[in-house]
Amino acid sequence: MFIVLHAANRYFVREADPTLLPLSAFLSGLGLVMIWRLKPDLAIAQAIWISAGTIAILVVFSTLRRYQWLKDYKYTWAIVGIILLFAPAFIGVERGGAKLWISFGPVSFQPAEIAKIFFVFFLAAYLGEKRELLSISTKRVFGFWLPELKHLGPLIAMWLISLVTLILERDLGTSLLFLGLFLVMLYVATGRPVYVSLGFILFIAGVTASYFAFSYVQARVDIWLDPWIDPSGRGYQIVQSIFAIASGGLTGSGLGLGHPTLIPAVQTDFIFSSIAEELGLLGGVAVVLSFLLFTLRGLKIALLAKNDFGRLVAVGLASVFALQSFTIIGGTTKLIPLTGVTLPYMSYGGSSILMNFILLALLLVISAKEATQVE
Amino acid sequence: MNKRIGRLGIIITAAFIVIIVNLTYLQFIAASELTAKPENIRPTLNKQKIRRGDIISADGQVLATSRKVGDTYKRYYPEGELASPITGYYSTEYGRAGLELTFDEYLSGQTKVSSPEDYIKRLLGKDVPGDNLSLTVNMDIQKTADRLLGSRKGAIVVLNPKTGAVLALASHPSYNPNNVDQNWNTLINDPNGPMLNRATQSRFTPGSTFKMVTAAAALENASATTGTVFDAPGTIKIYGGKVTNFAGENYSRITFADAFAKSVNTVFAQVSKSLGGPKLVDAARAFGFGEKPPFDLPASESRIPQASEMDPLEVAWSSVGQGRVQATPLTMALIGAAVANDGKIMQPYLVKKIQDAGGNTVYEASPKVWLSPMKHGTSQIVKSLMERVVNEGTGKAAKIPGVQVAGKTGTAEVGKDNPHAWFVGFAPAENPQVLVAVIIENGGIGGRTAAPIAREIMQEALKKPKN
C-alpha cells in the first residue's frame, strides 16, 4: 500500500520531503500490528481505514497540488471547522463521558479530528494576511504594547471556542489542542510573545475555572496528581497504564507476551503503553523519536516554504501533530493529566487515521511545491 | 518568522526529551516499585503462564506437578496432605510456602537463562518449563510417619545423620495444598494451625531430650563422668526453689549413666550447678540454639535464655529442658544426629538434585558439616548413655530385635496440660543409618507415646537401601 503511495508520491509531488512517508508508514504499520495483537477484530477495520487514508492522500495530491486557492476561502474553512467541532454536541453520541462522535449507520467518526485541518487553513490564511497588522502594537498597557482591540477579536474567539468545546463536549484534550494550535500559530506569525502569554493566562484562567466548575475536570487532575487514591476506580486506567509501562523494561516483554489488554481502551488512547510494555524502552523511544522527527520535518517544510500561507499551514499541521502526540504520550505516562486524544497513525480509529493521512499529504504537497519553485 | 519556527522546534524537541526521560524513569527507576504494588496483577498473570517444575521424591513419586488448564497452568499435588509439610503450597492469590517458596526461582525457571536456545524460546513465547526438584524424601517412610501421627498433633523428622539428608518430615494436622485457595480462610483461622510446619517452625519445650546437650557439656567440662555417683532424691532445693523428678520418684544414690538412662532430674540439677549457666548456654549454642538451621525449608531458631538472665534455679531447670528452653523438632533431631555422627552435625537438606527440563543437572547437594558441637570421644560416651536408655531405661519401647537402638526420651511439662511426649533416637548405634525425632503434643510420657513411633519408623527406614 505504501509502495503505491510512494509511486503516487513520485508522480504527483516530486521533490517532496523524503522522510515523512516512511515515518508514517512505520508508525501506522506498527500501530496496525499492535491493534492486531490487542484486538484482532479491529485490525481489519483499521487496515480498511489505512486504505481509505491512502485514497485520501491520492485525492489531496490530485486536487490540492496548487493549494494556494485555499486561502481565498478562509472564512468558509472557519465556519466548516466550527460546524464540525460543535456538531457532535447536538447530534452526537456520547462515549466514555465525552460527546465526540457522529454516527452514520455503522460508521461513526469524530468530526473534531477533521476540524483541526480546517482551523489550520483558516488561521494560516487569516494570520498570513493580518500578521503585519497584528505585529504593530499601538497601545501601551501596563508596560506591554498591545494592538488595537479589534485585532484581538480572533484571539478571544479562539479562546471561547476552546472553552465551549470543554463545556459542550466535555473534551479537555481537544480543547487544549485547539488553544495550543492557535497560540503557536499566533506566535510564529506575529512574533509577539505577549499574545502567547495573554492567551496562556486566559487558558489557565479557563482551566482553573473549569477545574472548580466541572467535576470531571477535577477528577482528571486529582487522579493525575495521585492515582493511588482510587486505583481500582477512577485511577484504574492510568494505574494500569503505568504498570504496563513499568513492566516493559529495556526490551519489553516481546510482542504478544505482555498483558496490555488490562488497560481499558488500550487500542485507542493507550496504544503507546502497550508498545512500551511489549517493546520496552527501546520501542517506546523509537516511537517517540519518530513523532519528533516527523514534527521537525514538518517544521523544516515550513522553513523552506516560500509564501506565508504555505509556511503557516505547515507550522500549524506540524504543531497539531506534535501537540497531539505529546498530549497523549504525556498523558499515558502520567507526565501531564490524562486527556483522551488519539496517537497519530497508531491509535485505532478511522477519523484519526484519515485526518493524519490528509495532514501527511498536505505537508508533502507543500514541500513539493516549494521545492519545485526553487528549481 | 523562520527564527520563531526554529525556536518552536527547540521547544517541541525539549518536550519530547522530557517524555523520554520520564519513560526511562518509569521503566527503570520506578519499575520494581510499581511491579510490587498490590494492585498490579501482572506478576501473577506471568506466573500462571509458566509450567513450574515437578517435585519428585527419592523413590520416584511425584509430589507436585503442573497441569494445563486452558491457557494457564494449575498446580497439582498428587499426595495432598501427606507431602504438604515438604512441598508447601503454591497459590496465585495467597503466595507460596514450603519448597514452593524456597525453591521458587528454580521451579518457575526464573533463575537465569541457562542457554541461548532457552532465551530464544522465551522470546518466542514458547513454553520453557521450570526446573524439577529431586528430593531425599522416601515416601514409604513419610507414609509411616504420617500414619503414626494419625489424628494427634505433632511432628516427626527422619534423617540420615551421616549426610543430613532428610528422609521424612511430617507435621500434623496438615492441609491439602490442592485446595488452599478455596479453604484459605478456614485454614488460617483454624486454632490447630494446619498451615504451620511444626517440624521446622514450631518451638516446643524439649524436656529431657535436652539432657543430650547437658550430658555432653558435663562430660566435656569434667562436671561428671559416666561413673560419678550422685544423691538422687525425689526433690532437691536450689536457690530457694526446687527441682523434682518426674512423678517425684526417689532413686537414692545413682551413677550419672543411670541417671541419664532413667532421666533423673535431681542429678542433672546438681550437674548443672557445677557446670554453671554460661557453659550450659554455650553448649546449647554449639548444638545450634539461637541460630536458624540452614535448611531447604523455612526453619525457626531454637531458644535458650542468656546465662546472665537465669538464676541458678532456672539454670537447673534449663539443664533438663524445662523453663524457657524452646526447641524445634528439627533442632532436636540435629542434636541427636551430632551424637550419631561422631560429634558433627551435617547440614540438613531435602533437595538432592535440581534438573532443568532438558535433564541437565543444575544443582546437586553435597553433604557438609554444619556444626561440630562436641569431641568425637564425648559423642561416643553420650551414644553409650543413649543405648542404655533404650536397653534398660525410659526408652525400652524403642527396642528393635537384632538392632542396637540409641535414644533419649522426653516428657516435657507444659503447665496443667498433658506433657509433650518426645523421643530422639537412631539405629543401628554402631553405624547409624537413620535418626528419628518425634514429638506428640500433649501426648503424655515420651517413653510410652513417642518411643514406639520412633521404633516403627526406624524399622521401616532400615528396610530401605542406603540413601
Indicate the radius of gyration of chain A in whole angstroms.
21 Å
Q: Give the count of structural domains of chain A.
A: 1
Oligomerization state:
heterodimer
- CATH architecture assignment of the domain at 201-350 and 369-463 in chain B: 3-Layer(aba) Sandwich
The profile of the biggest β sheet of chain A is: 3 strands, antiparallel
* Strand line-up of the largest beta sheet of chain A: 1-2-3
Mean pLDDT of chain B: 91
Largest sheet of chain B: 6 strands, mixed
Poorly predicted regions of chain B? none
Annotation field: number of helices of chain A: 13
Molecular structure report:
The complex is a heterodimer of chains A (375) and B (467). With 375 residues, chain A is mainly alpha-helical. Chain A has one domain (2-374). Helices cover 69% and strands 5% of the residues of chain A. Chain A has helices at 2-12, 20-38, 40-63, 74-91, 111-135, 153-169, 172-190, 193-213, 215-225, 236-246, 271-304, 308-332, 350-374; strands at 93-95, 98-104, 107-109, 139-141, 144-146. In chain A, the strands form two sheets. A three-stranded antiparallel beta sheet of chain A has the order 1-2-3, covered by helices on one side. In chain A, strand 4 (139-141) and strand 5 form a beta hairpin. The longest helix of chain A has 34 residues, at 271-304. Chain A is globular, with a radius of gyration of 21 Å. Chain B is an alpha+beta fold and 467 residues long. Chain B has a domain at 201-350 and 369-463: DD-peptidase/beta-lactamase superfamily (Beta-lactamase), CATH 3.40.710.10. Chain B has 18 helices and 19 strands. In chain B, strand 1 (55-56) and strand 2 form a beta hairpin. In chain B, helix 11 (211-220) crosses helix 13 (265-275), helix 11 (211-220) packs across helix 14 and helix 12 (256-262) crosses helix 17. The longest helix of chain B has 28 residues, at 2-29. The A-B interface holds A 184, 187-189, 191, 231-232, 239, 242-250, 254, 256-259, 262, 276, 280-281, 284-285, 288-289, 291-292, 295-296, 299, 302-303, 308, 311, 315, 319, 322, 326, 329-330, 333-335 and B 1-2, 4-6, 8-9, 12-13, 15-16, 18-20, 22-24, 26-28, 30-31, 34-35, 37, 39-42, 45-46, 123-125.
